[in-house]
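re: ur question from earlier - yeah i can do the single chain one, its not a big deal. heres the input i used so u can compare w yours
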Amino acid sequence: MLTVDGLGVRAGEQWLFRGVDLRLAAGECLVVTGPNGSGKSTLLRCLYGMQEGAEGRVAVCGRVPDERDRDFRRRVSVLLDDSDFFAELTPVQHLELLAGSFGTEFGTGDLLADAGLTERATVPAGRLSAGQRRRLLLLGATARPFDVLLLDEPERALDVAGKEWLTGLAARATGSGAAVVLATHHPALLSSADHVLDLA
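and the output i got, formated as tokens:
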């Protein structure tokens, strides 16, 4: 599902990282770790086709990643640090909009209950807490169909219960046959990963 050969990215005159090689099959999880500034988010942006490396090759779902391509976006779901929500829409409306975009039904009530958002289901997203907004963004990334899932520090702003829920989301994604890439330091996600890439 995902192949990286000799990927290198520059930050000015310096190499942010270099010589990254990856192989990730369907149903496997890769955790990318490393200190701040080591290139975790940049690597995910390369996997989604938002950024090109200075050297090396990347293939996702058998093709060069391109976020502008509709078919590619339908196969690859992503939650990056700059991902956003519609502040005026409620969690229910967010999921209904997503379902309409993909022509499917999600079981909105069950998803919101699983995420602990039932009592906030009809509250505009702009009035949710940081942790609740993060859960909503994660729902948006994982409720839709996908073959590859890319999540950048998904545990951010989540409490203990939220992190346990997140671990379950990742397990369900790989269990359904998706290839999952997580940039994270969360111990439970690290311990359950099939592969770990340390960019330190």
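Strands lie at 2-11, 14-24, 29-33, 55-60, 76-79, 148-152, 179-183, 195-198. not sure if urs matches, ping me
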